[in-house]
Amino acid sequence: MIKLTTVEIQDLSKSYDGYEAIQNLNMEIHEGEIYGLLGPNGAGKTTIFQTMMGQLKPTSGEVRILGEDAFKDTFEVSREVAFLPADIRFYDNLTARQNMEYLGKLVEEEPDIDRLLELVNLQDVADKKVSGFSHGMQKRLGIAQTLIKDPEIILFDEPTSGLDPERKEEFKDLVKRINREDGVTMIISSHILHELEDICDRIGILKDGNIEISGDTEDLVHKHTGVSNLEELYLEITRGEYR
Amino acid sequence: MKALTVARKEIADQMSSNKFLVVFGLLLLLTAATSFQGAKSYQDSMDRFQEAQNSENRIYAPDKPSVLDAFNTLTRGVNFSLVGGLLALILSFNTVSGERDRNTLKLLTSYPLHRDSIINGKFLAGIFTLTLASAASFLTASGIIISLTGATVTAEAATRIVLMLGGTVLYMSVMYGLGTLLSTLFKRSSSALMGGVLILTTFGLIVPQMSFFVADLMVEESDEGVSTPGQGVSESFKKRMDIQSSIRKATPSGSYTHFMSYMMGQDPTEISVSRGNGDGPKSEPSIGESLNSSLGVLGLLFGELVALFGASYVLFTRQEI
User: Fold this and answer.
1) Chain A residue numbers touching B13 (CB-CB < 8 A)
2) Are A83 and B107 within 8 A, CB to CB?
3) Which of B25, B148, B231, B309 has its CB surrounded by the most CB atoms within 10 Å?
């Protein structure tokens, strides 16, 4: 079966004050897949996501999402793509429900807020101000807000950082369920391998702003000789020992 | 329409913020205190007028005071250009940088709304809140002055008061525009606030002082002094006052002060030194004449508002998040 390409990144580079965060990156994400972007801190994961959302302007190259230019057609792209920033924060003076209602108004939808909050186990604190929320609770609310606009694609930037093990498992189950039931394409970034290997169809290992290796999660190890498991491969790449 | 969604949230945020409540409270307190003072001054003038009317010697009878005289005390006492400007800055210094500081800008801009909707919404909210604050201040003043003095507000005086309110909102909007621009320009809210306070101080305190200095440098003081009997104000003094006035009204606070003087029926550029040649007092200008005189400063304030908002708009819609 031919899978449509939903995200196409061509020769993307992005520099800040002379520092090249992304260098000639090429990447394709197919419809309905869960893609893992694995890389150490500072490898360029957040920059890739922000460029995909049109929040950063590429120094060179192009990002096309569902056929639209991510920087020029930001409005159209943001209608179909939801984003969970790594350092997500909400409006402290509003409750969880009010935050969700406000974001719902921005997409001109009336989301089922109770259902979304229940998905992330925040139903009991729906009417509490988010100023009292822990980092993990804000993260869970962040996951819930990605579903407000019924997106085609969701970008999760370090979604499980700050979550306890039980919540991490809940997140993985939720991702699998949304992907299976609604066919939503997902790109999930992490610097921890085992957070991605269970749920991702494909993984790309990022180092110094470029993808060193990309492939099906199950085949990645078999295709590369000299390593016995994915973790070994990841460590070799991040340490610069991979050839 | 999404700009209105943003505006509604901003208004709720602004009205419930401690910083707004503190400065607005201060504005109302100053308004109340100076309104009492204005009412007392009006009452004293009225007593003197009535006393003169009852006496047989009416040659030195003072003019009948107008309720606008009480407002004159109010606008000078409250110093709207400073307190109003501060209120506008307090509301605007973190409009964009605050979202950045709190890490909510990345979330907000990931939603399908054009960036101009964000900045327009924030601007609309600021103007609405400032209009409400100014109107509350003017209503408080009117209430206190009228209830204490029993003065009758003529249609003309009421029109002038409404125009003064409009001018105050326009001035505060200019300062709000300045705060928004700084908030877009600086990454941190603290830098934007510092920049705003520095500019407000420069406009309100340094430029007026500088205008004396520049006028002194440009025109030498003549031997005849300020005025000569029978000839009125000396030419050099008049030139120096003109230079001072031109420098001051180039700043938003100077334009605003000039506008308020025109609305009070005064001419801020006129030098009131007795000519000693028996000329009687000038008749009060009509509202049309006052408005006509203030067109220049109104134009300046509008121009500054458009330039500041335009710059914030262009910068925000093009900058990276």
Assistant:
1) 91, 93
2) yes
3) B309
Closest to A231 (Cα-Cα) out of A201, A184, A178, A194: A194
In order, the DSSP letters of B56-96 are: S--TTPPPPP-HHHHHHHHHHHHTHHHHHHHHHHHHHTTTT
Which amino acid is it at A35? Answer: Y
Residue B267 pLDDT exceeds 90: no
Check if the beta carbon of residue B130 is closer than 8 Å to that of residue B123: no
How much is the pLDDT for B280?
A: 47
Å from B103 to nearest chain A CA? 6
The SS3 assignment for A192 reads coil
Which pTM value belongs to this model? Answer: 0.87
* Contact assessment for residue A109 and residue A78, using Cβ atoms and an 8 Å cutoff: no
Where is A182: in which H helix or E strand?
Answer: helix A165-182
Question: Which pLDDT band holds residue A193 (cuts at 50, 70, 90)?
Answer: confident
Examine residue B263 and state whether it is found in any structural domain, yes or no.
yes
Size of interface A-B (CB pairs under 8 A): 70
B321, closest residue in chain A (CA to CA): A55
Q: What is the mean pLDDT of chain B?
A: 86
Query: Nearest Cα to B141, choosing from B36, B40, B44, B43?
Result: B36
Residue B73 domain flag: no
Q: Which of residues 11-40 of B touch A (CB under 8 A)?
A: 13, 16
Put simply, the answer to whether A75 touches B109 (Cβ < 8 Å) is no
Of B71, B272, B38, nearest to B161 (Cα)? B71
Name the residue of chain B whose CA is nearest to A94's CA.
B13
Distance from CA of B110 to the nearest CA of A (A): 6
Residue A93 in contact with partner chain B when CB distance is under 8 A: yes
pLDDT at position B230 is 63
Mutation test of the interface with chain B: which of A48, A74, A87, A105, choosing the one with the most B Cβ atoms within 10 A?
A105
Q: Which of A14, A55, A84, A92 is the best residue to mutate to test the B interface, defined by the most B CB atoms within 10 Å of its own CB?
A: A55
CB spacing of B112 vs A149 below 8 angstroms: yes
Strand partners, A188: A36, A156
Instruction: Please determine, for residue B156, whether its predicted confidence score (pLDDT) is greater than 60.
Output: yes
Question: Containing domain of residue B187, as a range?
Answer: 2-29+80-129+174-318
- The pLDDT value recorded for residue A153 is 96
Counting the structural domains of chain B, the total is 1
Does residue B154 lie in a domain region?
Answer: no
CB B15 within 8 A of CB B129: yes
Region of poorest pLDDT, from A154-158, A160-164, B56-60, B77-81? B56-60
A106 → closest Cβ in B2, B102, B106: B2
State pLDDT tens for residues A118-136: 999 999 999 999 999 998 8
Structure tokens at B83: 């307190």
Query: Domain locations in chain A?
Result: 5-238
In a domain, B160, yes or no: no
Cα–Cα–Cα angle for B1, B7, B9, rounded to 5 degrees: 115
- For domain A5-238, the CATH superfamily is P-loop containing nucleotide triphosphate hydrolases (3.40.50.300)
Under a CB-based contact definition with an 8 Å cutoff, are residues A83 and A188 in contact?
Answer: no
The tokens describing A152, both together, are 């085609």
